[in-house]
């Protein structure tokens, strides 16, 4: 693995290696001194062309706990055309000696472009590219679910036979795409549910089943329900008549949540639209993993950075 751009290209073995390494990283985070020397002397640049709270903070925490030198570059609002600005920026980063780049960009394919064009010779980690992919989010989701389902016997395992329902704005969700591929690689069964307007036409090529009826999907008692945020910033048309209507049909309302078995895991990548795709009763319950997902994100990103970057200084990468 040279870069982490997409989960579609991850093998089961690579995915399990990432999750097991994240377990090792998590074990170090219970110590009084959390810092490891693994990436001492390695310069990591966080290149964020789009808003982020959790992901940016989480990457920075992971880099610092591995003793990397961190440069944060927030390029939001740049008026330069996207392709050009990315090339210029990459060449600047190369010139200042960046050893690895974490990139978030509103254009699908931006991370791949950076990895392939040769503007910079460094591992690239995709921290979310448009509606395309968000691989570290899917990895932290899988890590969280694996722990909830298998506890301390999680190491070395996939998610074989686990049934996961992903609900909502699949069309605009990089989280859904990355999860479908990764959960599939780990042996889980995925069902996508949402309004017909927000379930992409290309879904039949995905390793998932689809449906429009949330109550029917929940009645089949899945192991986990993953609620997606309505990505209003990516919508250029009306995809559903009214938010009240959306919440009634596809939201995890309090009533729906109370009808779930007590061990159904409730997931959301954040930021949540409370009262729209998820009720507070569900989000704040013991079944919800929202904050666990955030906490696990640091260990998962430490694992990805460690596996991709630990050889960069010796030229072994
Ligand atoms: N934080 C996730 C992302 O950046 C999910 C979301 O924004 O809805 O894709």
Q: What's the short version?
A:
38% of the residues lie in helices and 14% in strands. With 317 residues, the protein is α/β, with parallel strands linked by helices. The N and C termini lie close together (9 Å).
Structure write-up:
46% of the residues are buried. The mean pLDDT is 93. This protein folds into 2 domains: 147 residues, Rossmann fold, CATH 3.40.50.1370; 159 residues, 3-Layer(aba) Sandwich (Rossmann fold), CATH 3.40.50. It is built from 11 helices and 9 strands. The chain has 317 residues and is α/β, with parallel strands linked by helices. The strands form 2 sheets. It has a 5-stranded parallel beta sheet. Strands 2-1-3-4 form a 4-stranded parallel beta sheet, with helices on both faces. Helix 1 crosses helix 11. Bound molecules: aspartic acid (ASP). The site of aspartic acid has 8 residues, from helix 6. Aspartic acid (ASP) binds next to helix 6.
- Overall pLDDT level: 93
Radius of gyration: 19 Å
The CATH topology of the largest domain comes to: Rossmann fold
- Neighbour order of strands in the largest sheet: 7-6-5-8-9
Tally of contiguous helical segments: 11
Q: What is the string of SSEs from the N terminus onward?
A: HEHEHEHEHEHEEHEHHEHH
Low-confidence stretches: none
Bound molecules: aspartic acid
